[in-house]
């Protein structure tokens, strides 16, 4: 029996995941957590074969997102981690793999994808939701495990945008033209394979670029 720990701050999500995971009779959910700190506690005392975790869980002393993934990779390097996230874009996928995740499943994906992800990581393979694979193809990206890199100025612009500033306000503060700031924003979004401001802000928060 494959032992699985699940982590999500929404109880109803965990209920759904447990039903899907245990449906085939080959897996057993042996632990649950509603945040990063509780997850680390459960992992410290509960042996498991696979971890299924949300990407951004509020509260606790441990940083969310990529910092949590990095911590898990350092403390449990042999444990396959499946990331279940609503941030279903190429930037999240590539950065998550770069930080040690073995699979990324979109929360909007069909119920069949989570068992497929578990099967894949147990076989030593990686897995990405179909919607993410489509985005990769459309973006024409190469190695999906390579984390996207922003220049210093692009990162600065993304941070300011995510903090609530407008392009005009940023241009005035850093003494660059509005067209230059717009271009840097556009280039950053292209590098990240992100098409909307909402996804850009979510990426900035989840990676620690912006609080």
UniProtKB/TrEMBL annotation:
Residues 3-122 form the Response regulatory domain. The lineage of its organism: Bacteria, Pseudomonadati, Pseudomonadota, Gammaproteobacteria, Pseudomonadales. PANTHER family: TRANSCRIPTIONAL REGULATORY PROTEIN RCSB, TWO-COMPONENT RESPONSE REGULATOR. The modification 4-aspartylphosphate is found at residue 54. SUPFAM superfamilies: C-terminal effector domain of the bipartite response regulators, CheY-like. This is Response regulator transcription factor. Keywords: DNA-binding, Phosphoprotein. It comes from Pseudomonas salmasensis. Residues 143-208 form the HTH luxR-type domain. CDD domains: LuxR_C_like, REC_NarL-like. It comes from the Bacteria. It holds the Pfam family GerE.
């Amino acid at each position: 029996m494959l032992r699985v720990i699940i982590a999500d701050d929404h109880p109803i999500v965990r209920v759904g995941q447990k039903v899907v995971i245990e449906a085939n009779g080959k897996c057993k959910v042996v632990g649950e957590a509603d945040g990063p700190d509780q997850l680390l506690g459960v992992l410290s005392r509960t042996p498991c074969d696979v971890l299924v975790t949300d990407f951004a869980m509020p509260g606790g002393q441990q940083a969310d997102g990529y910092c949590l993934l990095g911590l898990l990779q350092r403390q449990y390097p042999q444990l396959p981690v499946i990331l279940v996230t609503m941030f279903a874009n190429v930037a999240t996928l590539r950065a998550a793999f770069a930080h040690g995740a073995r699979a990324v499943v979109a929360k909007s994906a069909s119920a069949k994808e989570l068992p497929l992800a578990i099967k894949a990581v147990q076989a030593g393979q990686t897995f990405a939701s179909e919607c993410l694979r489509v985005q990769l193809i459309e973006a024409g990206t190469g190695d999906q495990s390579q984390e996207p890199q922003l220049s210093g100025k692009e990162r600065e612009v993304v941070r300011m945008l995510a903090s609530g500033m407008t392009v005009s306000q940023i241009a005035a503060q850093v003494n660059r033209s509005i067209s230059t700031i717009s271009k840097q924003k556009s280039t950053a979004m292209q590098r990240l394979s992100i098409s909307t401001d909402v996804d850009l802000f979510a990426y900035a928060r989840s990676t620690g670029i912006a609080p």
